[in-house]
Amino acid sequence: MGPLRPAPRMFEPVAKRLVVTGASGFLGGHVVPLLVDRGWQVSALVRSDKAADAVTALGAEPLEGDLDRPASVIDAFGRSGSNVLANLASLGFGHAATVVTAAERTGLHRAVFVSTTGIFTGLNPPSKRVRVEAERCIRDSALAWTIVRPTMIYGTPGDRNMWRLLQLLRRTPIVPLPGGGRRLQQPVHVDDLAHGIVVAIGVPTAIGKAYDLAGPAPLSFRDVVKQAAQALGRRAVVVPVPAAPLLWGLRWVEAAGRRAPIKAEQIERLLEDKAFDIDPARRDLGYAPRTFAEGITAEAQMTR
């Protein structure tokens, strides 16, 4: 972990009852247990028996509701008896207005929403417009809102990011790096992100603010690969690959309706710097994320 900071001033709602969306997902598996450990009575919106079983195992009470059915969300939020909302469900599917309206109508005055630093991309994927509009909807609401924006999340086999890189490095030391891997990355460990979300719920100074939650310092993607290999006790052989012909080839494959092991957009994202200022989170939330070397070493041990 990074250096310890003074604990931020907290406040307690009248009743520590909280409702969560996205509780059965990857991030929910880290946030919900932390909330339960801190004395919250957690209700979780679910739309399947499988999700209900998952959140029950985490210590939450499942409440049937579907973000595609606004009336069911209002009903579930109302039945939760909660006064706080943690929206972990993706804002990239157009459900922000549904969640905000349901929270306003059922008295969930305090609300923390998880967005993404992906809204700052210079690319123009369809989800960017949806997420930017979602943040506007949240800001314009009557809620006492906070927005947290994680960068690339890693830390366990479910992260779908660094786990894939570790698996690749176990198979081969040779890693092609589009554009030479010079662009900056700032991955955030899932446990540091979960802690930041839970702290934000109870900090008055976080109301009406948005925080970028990332690792302590940006690294080049080349350094990310090398540190991941070192965590496995291996040496990576990085091979710079010109980005332009690679992108042309991937776009041709996609246009032909064929499936490639990686999407052109994923390569384009690797050609952007992703470095973010976490000082506001340090100041207001006592946010002190672990270094990437610490986090990836712990994750690498899970691959054995």
User: Which term fits the overall shape?
Assistant: globular
User: Looking at CATH, which topology of the largest domain would you report?
Assistant: Rossmann fold
- Strand fraction: 15-25%
Rg to the nearest angstrom?
20 Å
Largest sheet: 7 strands, parallel
Q: In the residues, how many domains can be counted?
A: 2
Read across the widest sheet, the strand sequence of neighbours is 3-2-1-4-5-6-11
User: What portion of residues is helical?
Assistant: 40-55%
The CATH homology group name of the largest domain: NAD(P)-binding Rossmann-like Domain
Order of helices and strands: EHEHEHEHEHEEHEEEHEEHEHHHH
Shape-level CATH architecture of the largest domain: 3-Layer(aba) Sandwich
The N- and C-terminal alpha carbons lie at a distance of 23 Å
Count of individual beta strands? 13
Protein structure class: alpha/beta
Put simply, the count of helices is: 12
Low-confidence sequence ranges:
none
CATH class of the largest domain: Alpha Beta
Mean pLDDT: 93
